[in-house]
Prior knowledge:
By secondary structure, this protein is an alpha+beta fold. It has four helices and two strands. Strands 1-2 form a two-stranded parallel sheet. Helix 3 packs parallel to helix 4. The longest helix is centred in the middle third of the chain and has 13 residues, at 48-60. It starts with a helix and ends in an 8-residue tail after the last helix.
Amino acid sequence: PAEFATIASAADGLDWLYAFAKSRRKKFSVGEWGTAPGGKSNTNGENAEFIRWMHGWFAAHAHDLAYEAYFNNCTETEVQSNLFRPKGPDCVRQNVTAASTYRSLFGGAPRKLD
């Protein structure tokens, strides 16, 4: 939670984005977010807690949220935030635990992940 709070309150973090939109009497949006390998607590992309923290942050600011979009990517040269595509030749990572948490919080029909 402390690491998430630090990220959210960074100079260009979620709190800044929210305040910027509010100062202009606009709703805000988060056009790209997702889990990715890297950082102290997310060395493999399987960060279900990050999904929970983002959901909680969005819920707390829902009145002013226009939209949010999860960036689902699984190529080796990108962030590898994939939740939905099966691992294979064109997809180097599948974050199954994070996917299950995302589905339970944000909705969507359960699917078998290969």
